[in-house]
Amino acid sequence: AQSVTQLGSHVSVSEGALVLLRCNYSSSVPPYLFWYVQYPNQGLQLLLKYTTGATLVKGINGFEAEFKKSETSFHLTKPSAHMSDAAEYFCAVSDVSGSRLTFGEGTQLTVNP
Amino acid sequence: SQTIHQWPATLVQPVGSPLSLECTVEGTSNPNLYWYRQAAGRGLQLLFYSVGIGQISSEVPQNLSASRPQDRQFILSSKKLLLSDSGFYLCAWRAGHTTPYEQYFGPGTRLTVT
Questions:
Q1: Distance CA A41, CA A21 (A)
Q2: 8 Å CB contact between A50 and A35
Q3: Is B90 in Cβ contact with A43 (below 8 Å)?
Q4: Which of A59, B5, B22, B74 is the most buried (most CB within 10 A)?
Q5: % of chain A beyond a pLDDT of 90
């Protein structure tokens, strides 16, 4: 069975600083991996996805993530944080059939002025 | 383009009352449909998913049920609400039989059981 671990339930950065949100997964087969963002009282929005091919994936709002099979990781980064990036971020992995996603517990990102 | 709707946006219900939350998807056919719940400060819990009309898979035994009376309509129900049913309910869809596997989420319903 797939599982996802997000290291750090809360991350705080200064505006303009690097954002790094960590995600490690467990999967018995090559995974499909996703990052979602959730703003307060809203649904989840897809930031980016890894399916096959290039291991560095670029998403919306300047975010990117790198799939590292040897480390079973899919960390999310952004070079320069903006106040509008403050939100909760979820990493997810698809099961073999694609019928279900397993989500991590989420990381709350705070951006300080 | 595809759009997913949920209503109501917010709901306050007393313990023991019934519940009906509705989700509809536009712009696609034969989607997979999902109901999730987020309790305060918690992650997402998958409640039900459906791969077609009348086909419901339950992930968590509880006093909730789901139905899919039409291809793009998914309903979450309860006969008698519990305090523990409070939370943020999210509906999601994905393309039925093809990759990619990402899911797209609706705006959610905030349910408070008093």
A1: 21
A2: no
A3: yes
A4: B74
A5: 75
What distance in Å separates the CA atoms of residue B44 and residue A100, rounded to the nearest whole number? 12
Cα–Cα distance measured from residue A59 to residue A48, given in angstroms and rounded to the nearest whole number: 5
CA A27 → CA A20, A22, A91, B34, B105, distances in Å?
22, 17, 14, 22, 24
Task: List CB contacts (< 8 A) between B110 and chain A.
Answer: 41
pLDDT tens-place string over residues A9-22: 999 999 999 999 99
Closest by Cβ to B43, choosing from A42, A43, A103: A103
Distance, CA of A86 to CA of B96 (rounded, Å): 33
In tens, the pLDDT along B32-86 reads 999 999 987 778 999 999 999 999 999 886 789 999 999 999 999 999 999 999 9
What's the DSSP call for residue A69? G
Which residues make Cβ contacts (< 8 Å) with residue A84, sequence separation at least 6? none
Q: Per-residue pLDDT for B99 more than 70?
A: no
